[in-house]
Write the structure tokens for this entry.
Amino acid sequence: MQMEQIINESLIDLNLEVTTKDEAIRALTALLYQEGNVSDPDLFIRDVYRREAEGQTGLGNHIAIPHGKSDAVKITSIAVGRTKHDLAWESLDEKPVHFVILFAVRNVDKTTVHLKLLSQVATALADDETLENLLFTNNKKEIIQLLSHQMK
Amino acid sequence: MKIVGVAACTAGIAHTYIAAEKLRKGAEARGHEIHIETQGTIGSENELTSEQIAEADLVILATDIKINGEERFKGKKIVRVKTATVIKSPVQFMEKVEKSLANV
């Protein structure tokens, strides 16, 4: 399975100039919109916040994974952003967030390939060393590689 | 110990898989053998076999929602936990489970 089906370097911004959670979600949604993966940013953002209302998406270790399952999503994919600013975010360890992975999920997918790739990304995030590397590398290719955890 | 478990979160997109992997790491770090089934948007993966369930000393349900097939674990020792707890501190969670079993 190829991670390139759900992420590419245009969907990664390692110098996000944002200072709030809302700005981060909007900036990453803009990337997904530019790539044609999301057709209606406002609708998508509404669905992201609907998921936010169900429980915290901050994983701890400065990483958050907001996600939206939405009619506005054309291609199930992810956008990745990092910022040097402290973002206040509902999180398991209450630390500020610096790294955001926004999951955009189609309401109906014809195949499960993209969803499987997303679950692979989620599995990769269970590794503390991976999380640390995500916070420090400036190489977008390495980011994609770090997120491409191979299922055992 | 031999452990089987199920991970399932509300959206079934991300937390399910993080919790499953953390449980696996936590249990292995404590020297246990573990099989974890995930129930997400894709459906069930790594589905537990009846043999694995029969052999298990313990069932861990790391779930935020009602799961499919809970009746498979009837009569077994079950520990229920939210996905957030195992994501936050998998090893401590396993240690706590071990202690509670030792006290029975």
